[in-house]
Amino acid sequence: MASLRLLSVFLCQLLVLLFLFDPSSAQGLKVGFYKDTCPRAEEIVRRTTAQYVTHLPSLAAPLLRLHFHDCFVRGCDGSVLLNATSANPNPEKTAIPNQSLDGFFVVDVAKSRLEKECPGVVSCADILALVARDAVKLVNGPFWDVPTGRRDGTVSLALESLANLPPPFFNITSLKLSFLSKGLSVKDLVVLSGGHTIGQSHCPSFTNRLYNFTGKGDSDPSLDSNYVPRLKSACQPGDTTTQVEMDPGSYRTFDASYYKLVAKRRGLFQSDSALLNDAETKAYVFEAAGSGSTFFKDFGVSMVNMGNIGVLTGTAGEIRKHCAFVN
Prior knowledge:
- The longest helix has 20 residues, at 2-21.
- This protein has helices at residues 2-21, 41-53, 60-71, 104-117, 124-138, 158-164, 172-180, 186-193, 228-234, 257-263, 270-273, 279-289, 295-307, and strands at residues 200-202, 243-245.
- The radius of gyration is 20 Å and the shape is globular.
- The chain is mainly alpha-helical and 327 residues long.
- The chain has a two-stranded antiparallel ribbon with strand order 1-2.
- It has two domains: 19-165, Peroxidase, domain 1 (Orthogonal Bundle); 172-302, Peroxidase, domain 2 (Orthogonal Bundle).
- The active site is at 69 (proton acceptor).
- Its EC number is 1.11.1.7.
- It is found in: Secreted.
- GO terms for molecular function: heme binding; lactoperoxidase activity; metal ion binding; peroxidase activity.
């Protein structure tokens, strides 16, 4: 009886979460939100992003990652951008998963230019969403229309990042639950994982798969045994500084080659390999790895879905003057 009551409570809590994070309930967002109040807003963000990514294509991945790490904690409210202060010494930025984030300066430059163009109008949360889209496009990825109208949050807590960001060692069950709790589908999970086609990762994110995986001095059996020596040559035990390409040979170009790697059991993270342990995600992996893939179109749709998570609109939150500090 007690177990039934606990199950009932869990289901009620899950329904509340789904309501709060349902992408379809992101009222107040629309494409062209700044058409009248700041007509050049998207152009300014696009030119600022191009100024940096054109000269440093490897910056595209960190900018995409910033948006993801923002949306999965408190929703897409720009809370990941806030600096530590005496009043809040441990914002999201200080959490272990966020200590390797990069690209904040691109957002700051875009914000500075927007404040000169139309003070107090464009939110940092919207800048993040636009920068992520523009960065992906600049490295040969898809373009999608970004609904805007988000406002900025005023709360940022490191502990919430630890509780909400799916780590690279998650299995497929944990990944599905994590995405479901944000109102995202299993398809969104496998499509957004494709963002790993660009970028690099530090060794500690995956070396557990290479050395003593089960306590017997072995490697992760879900990882191609012929690929293990290559990764070991790059990452020695205890190496915390070396970075490895997530999509070798293509890490600065947005394409579908990530799925070809996963299909060959060469995904870098356990969470990549986990996509082969579910019928729906596995089917998409092999479909995206083949010709005629709909990955680019799907990625834009899933990015919009993610960008709708827990947004603040209307009079909620604020429009920050500087993205690193609340007003």
